[in-house]
Request: fold
Amino acid sequence: MGAPAARRHARTNCRRTTEPISEPRTAETTAAPPTLGLGQRPFRFTPNRRLLALEPTGREALDALWLGYTEAHGSPSLRQAIAALYDHVDAAQVLVHAGAEEAIFNFMNVALSPGDHVVVHAPHYQSLSEVARGIGVEVSDWRGDAERGWELDLSELERLLTPRTRLVVVNFPHNPTGFLPTTAFVHALSALSDQHDFVVFADEVYRGLELEPATRPPAFADVNARAVSLGGLSKAYGLAGLRIGWLATRDPRRFAALSAFKDYTTLCNSAPSELLAALALRHAGPLVERNLGLIRANLDRLDRFFEAHRDLFAWHRPQAGSIAFPRLLRGKVDEFCADLVAKTGVLLLPGTLYGEDFGGAFRVGFGRKNLPEALERLEAYLTGR
Ligand SMILES: Cc1ncc(COP(=O)(O)O)c(C=O)c1O
Reply:
């Protein structure tokens, strides 16, 4: 199969090897869930009313919006606001997409051909490997070490590389472990990519949610001229419903190929979403700070909870993001999660959904207000009350 045919094949036949990790986002699921989904929807989302109130002319601008086709690369003001998040990327090097998900799909289809090899930081968000597999690419997992705070080992990456390795996919801050690399690690990985001629695709959609802002490593597109950084508004900004994500790269050939591919997916973005996204980014500080405040308070609660149950769980405090991946020390995670949801309505995501290697762990989201209530129910379940 030639490359264009393979890409068409990937677009229609992208196989899921496991059930989707993210929950369906229907109108009903935005209403109060019947269960306390600690393992699901780990965010508090921002209402449109709050967003428009950030600027006195916000509502007026939305009412007056022209609803024709928008600019294919993204609106100039939005691209400008996104570029301001980077040190060495300018607006012309930002390509706006319909959510990070479209950006992942398009990037993989542009960068990969059947027979290529890709290394993916694991455990991982499903589409970071499955789109590549759908194209006919061999995927190897580069596993974080649970015993060492989910750290990655560069010498292990070197062992995984083959002459066919085109891409190394990383996710910093990491979903689901909350791992955050040091700046030195990012530079060392960048140097390896030049030495072995692979490209780094860095999923940075959780960027901005570092618990200690001083620990934030540089974005990959800032560090390496061939790398591609993925960003979006769904996580730190709580604006998943806008469906705005982006790719940032200083590689002009890659940018042109990505731009051409997007002509066959969404072509251009939703005008209201672009307007609201630019508005949100102009007020990034307070929006992110509000979510970080909730995350910090919830994390303190989780610290206390897991300390009290250290005989049953191995807890590693995440360094960033709103998701953690503790391990169950006794019993089977699938059975624990199934029994828990049946008896209490608290839903945790078993690590087996990330692959058998991660079967001892489970995902906990702590970006929502209902965490204290869910923890109370969990506590009552454990103590048999
Ligand atoms: C690591 C990671 N990358 C990408 C995405 C997709 O983000 P979006 O909802 O903006 O498409 C998600 C969503 O959960 C994610 O967790």
About this structure: The chain is about 40% helix and 15% strand. Confidence is low (pLDDT under 50) at residues 1-34. The domain at 23-47+285-382 is CATH 3.90.1150.10 (Aspartate Aminotransferase, domain 1). Residues 284-308 form the longest helix (25 residues).
